[in-house]
Amino acid sequence: MAEQSAVNRPPGIRAKWLVGDQTIGIGKIELLEKIEQHGSISAAAREMGMGYRRAWTLLDSLQRCFSSPLVETARGGNAHGGAVVTPLGRELIQRFAKYQSEIHENFNEIADWLQTVQADMDGPAVVAKDQLSAARKHR
Length: 139
Fold this sequence. Notes:
Arc Repressor Mutant, subunit A, single chain, 4 strands, two-stranded antiparallel ribbon, 5 helices, mainly alpha
């Protein structure tokens, strides 16, 4: 099946939280979920198609938003370290999922409307002459 171009896909919405100077979005939440699933940051990173360093950087930026740990780690090597999502981390995953579900549920009516008025980004732009004239006057 051919992938839709980004410009012609149906209207959508992304949930992001701003906490301090950091953002929490689906990518960081998915990383937490994968860590919980695999018990490993490196396995979670591999499944998400990113390097360990990138995963650790995302996890660190997420962790800076909270006063208690979201993930507890043990060093690897022969002792077979790992990572465990803490109760706070699991609560974050659950609350974000609930929030995202509510956002999407409430967005359906707006998305339906947006789809009826969305421009065909592959086609020629439709701009009225008076709009162009007004835009040029305001330069």
